[in-house]
Automatic annotation (TrEMBL), chain B:
CDD domains the record matches: ABC_PhnC_transporter
Ranges for domain ABC transporter: 24-268
Organism domain of life: Bacteria
Gene symbol of the encoding locus: phnC
Keywords: ATP-binding, Cell membrane, Membrane, Nucleotide-binding, Translocase, Transport
PROSITE patterns per the UniProt record, alphabetical: ABC_TRANSPORTER_1 (PS00211), ABC_TRANSPORTER_2 (PS50893)
Pfam families on file: ABC_tran (PF00005)
Name of the molecule in the record: Phosphonate ABC transporter ATP-binding protein
InterPro entries reported in the protein's UniProt record: AAA+_ATPase, ABC_transporter-like_ATP-bd, ABC_transporter-like_CS, ABC_transpr_PhnC, MetN_ABC_transporter-like, P-loop_NTPase
Gene3D superfamilies: P-loop containing nucleotide triphosphate hydrolases
GO MF annotation, one: ATP binding
Length: 273, 270
């Protein structure tokens, strides 16, 4: 077409760029850092090539030894341990809510307007999350001795951070309008929360409760490895005695229970919303 | 009483002469959200004890702030607000709550609790009166329940009591909002742009309802409204605000083009 010199709208032309040069350089830097981190990680974990090479062989060998699963072993040993695992998950979830609700109310900046309390609650929630449930279990086994009680506390303390954070977020996302209306009607603080805030967070609350219970079923399955009760104990024994058919039975039982929990939770959650 | 009041407030908008017919008296009200930048620059208004008082003015001129200073959803910086002679500024805690339940409020966005039923939304107007355990167990006094039913009849939603608020249309929601405010048996009702989210016909219907019900219960109303025609049609008294000050205060008949020009600025739109 016309060359630029004869183009009458040339003075109106503007160049559009998505990023400024500074932004482009910083975006490249981010990529560079990512690649460097991966390279560094691979170099530092010292993968032994021989072990990596015969891994498929070892895996096949283990699977052969696991087959067929020792189904006869399921009842009563595995079954009872499985039931205990479910109890640990359920009690742990209930207990976690007892701790998480006050912390969430304290952490939500629209509910608790005292800044230091917000920070304190946030700190508590982060502390709970920063420790893995197995580590919590080790601590509580040291306190209560081995058994399901340690498992319940480990599950509860690990879940508090997760549940408290999500609840606090749900509280902060509530529409302030209804609360304002109740305040304008002279409602005291408790009534404002009960009738203006709780109905809004109720679906999130039950969603979080079910989701966490679902996670806790899976988490409590491994707590037995450190002596905190449940099916992990049976798994640990079977591995220690190289009874691979029994290991297979336990793994299958966990798989079935986790699948069932998933189905139940999804069904209930679909009805809640 | 109404005759003396209409006569009195025509000439002198903020004189002490109409104290007897005044429900709410605002004097020297100043609100600064950030220091040195007042949104309200010394408002003096005396609200008559009956009928609708409409506040008109451009967006951002402090109409909403003024109305919210009355029930202290917004904290006034200085000045005085008296309801039936009792000072409202400076009230704290329990006394503030007791004052608030004497003042009903209707909102632009209705502010209903969406997941509760219409009945419970109406009953929540009693939360300043009933103890918390009753609200929690939904054991409201029989008298309140009967009044809630009566108000639902009055706003034209008798068969919607058990529906959830989020199933209603905008006009229906605002009717519930009005019923909730009247549930308080307020001495005055504040309405902050109650029709701005509604279509023109529904807006008129809601204002007619508001006028009728508050007249029947003898509750004076202060209403913030964008629509000048609606203000003239429903209000007995109009307060024109611009730039944080009252620049017109009188009956709708006296509101003329030059007033509107002063309130909204420019004239191309007239």
């Amino acid at each position: 077409m016309n060359s630029m010199t004869h183009d009458p709208v040339a003075p109106l032309r503007r160049e559009w760029q998505r990023h400024t040069p500074a932004q482009r350089i910083s975006r490249w830097m981010v990529w560079l850092v990512c690649v460097a981190a991966v390279v560094w990680a691979v170099r530092s974990i010292d993968i032994i090539p021989e072990f990596l090479a015969d891994a498929p062989e070892q895996m096949a060998d283990m699977l052969v030894r696991m087959w067929p699963p020792d189904i006869a072993h399921y009842y009563p040993a595995v079954h009872n341990a499985m039931i205990e695992t479910l109890h640990i998950a359920t009690l742990g979830t209930v207990f976690c809510f007892v701790l998480a609700i006050p912390l969430a109310l304290m952490a939500a900046r629209n509910v608790c307007t005292i800044k230091p309390l917000n920070v304190l609650a946030q700190l508590g929630l982060v502390a709970s999350r920063s420790v893995n449930s197995l580590v919590w279990a080790l601590l509580f086994v040291a306190i209560f001795g081995p058994g399901a009680a340690a498992g319940v506390f480990a599950i509860a303390f690990r879940s508090v951070g997760f549940v408290g954070k999500l609840l606090a977020e749900a509280l902060e996302e509530t529409n302030p309008g209804p609360r304002e209306a109740l305040r304008a009607a002279g409602a005291p603080w408790g009534a404002e929360l009960l009738k203006g805030v709780w109905p809004q967070v109720q679906p999130a609350f039950w969603g979080i409760a079910l989701f966490r219970w679902d996670i806790n079923v899976r988490e409590s399955a491994v707590l037995g490895l450190v002596g905190a009760g449940g099916i992990g104990l049976v798994l640990d024994d079977a591995i220690n005695f190289f009874q691979w058919e029994r290991v297979a039975t336990v793994l299958l039982a966990i798989l079935v229970v986790v699948l069932l929990a998933e189905i139940v939770v999804t069904r209930i959650r679909a009805r809640l919303i | 009483m109404s005759a003396t009041m209409t006569a009195a407030h025509q000439g002198a908008p903020n004189g002490a002469a109409l104290a007897s017919a005044t429900v709410l008296e605002i004097k020297g009200l100043v609100k600064e959200y950030s220091a040195g930048k007042p949104v309200l620059k010394g408002i003096d208004v005396a609200v008559p004890a009956e009928g609708i008082t409409a506040i008109i003015g451009p967006s951002g001129t402090g109409k909403s702030t003024l109305i919210r200073c009355i029930n202290r959803l917004v904290e006034p910086t200085s000045g005085s607000i008296r309801l039936h002679g009792a000072e409202l500024t400076g009230l704290r805690g329990r006394n503030l709550r007791l004052a608030r339940r004497r003042i009903g409020m209707v909102f632009q966005e209705y502010n209903l609790v969406e997941r509760l039923t219409v009945m419970e939304n109406v009953l929540s107007g009693r939360l300043g009166y009933v103890p918390l355990w009753r609200a929690w167990l939904r054991k409201y006094p029989e008298e309140d329940i009967q009044r809630a039913f009566m108000l639902l009849d009055a706003v034209g939603l008798p068969e919607h009591a058990t529906r959830r608020a989020d199933a209603l249309s905008g006009g229906q929601r605002q009717r519930v909002g009005i019923a909730r405010a009247l549930m308080q048996r307020p001495e005055i009702l504040l309405a902050d742009e109650p029709t701005s989210s509604l279509d023109p016909r529904t807006a008129v219907e809601v204002l007619e309802l508001l006028t009728r019900l508050t007249a029947a219960e003898g509750v004076p109303v202060i209403i913030n409204i964008h629509n000048v025609d609606l203000a003239k049609r429903f209000a007995r008294r109009i307060i024109g605000m611009s730039g944080g000050s009252v620049i017109f205060d009188g009956p709708p008949e006296e509101l003329e083009q030059h007033h509107l020009r002063a309130i909204y600025g420019g004239e191309d739109w007239l």
